[in-house]
Amino acid sequence: MWASPFVLRVRLALSLKGVSYEYVEEDLKSKSELLLKSNPVHTKVPVLIHNGEPVCESSVILQYIDEAFAGIGPSLLPADPHDRAVARFWASYIDDKLLKASSQASSGKTEEEKAEGAKQAAAAVETLEGALMECSKGKPFFGGDSAGYVDLMLGGLLPWVHVGDAVKGVKTFDPATTPLLAAWADSFGALDAVEPVMPEVGKLVEFAMAMMSQAAAAAAATN
């Protein structure tokens, strides 16, 4: 699904590794038999089908791509076991803290819930600024000189970060408060492997506004 940040993570990983693939778009309101059979537990995208076998969940797919195509392109995860564990920790943090808080900030049931989500998201961004300093060791990416697993996990969310900034008139990765993340976002977005697969922010804004209108209409109908 073109607007999914989780699908984008996988497309970014395949692009970064230089692996050719067939992209199949799903209509999530009328899911195909291929998707339903490939992912019967969640029936969600993305699903990677390799050698006839499905692999599900974006974080798992990224690790699979790194192992299955180890001889192609750059490694996504570090060679050192401790560094790999650290990368997996921060990848989980991005989904468990930043993503959940951001979702609450935009979709909370009350204004109090939204405010609390925004507060937690800001704290998560601040924590990731410190993580980038620790992981990058003065280099541009969480992976050091080149983008890796954590960069892809966060990079898949980047277009939606820009959407939130455009809609709310804020700057999530602000050069004044999180200069490392601001520079990281610019460096990541400028990569040759990244730019061609990134969705247009303007198109995403239109999509988000349409979804918000539908949600508001549904809520009004129930009331």
Automatic annotation (TrEMBL):
Record keywords, A-Z: Cytoplasm, Transferase
Residue ranges of every copy of the GST C-terminal domain listed in the record: 80-211
InterPro entries noted in UniProt: Glutathione-S-Trfase_C-like, Glutathione-S-Trfase_C_sf, Glutathione_S-Trfase, Glutathione_S-Trfase_N, GST_C_Tau, Omega/Tau-like, Thioredoxin-like_sf
Cellular-component GO terms for this entry: cytosol
Role description: Is involved in the conjugation of reduced glutathione to a wide number of exogenous and endogenous hydrophobic electrophiles.
Family: Belongs to the GST superfamily. Tau family.
Protein's name in the database: Glutathione S-transferase
Major site of localization recorded for this protein: cytoplasm
Domain of life: Eukaryota
Pfam families in the record: GST_N (PF02798)
Domain GST N-terminal stretches: 1-73
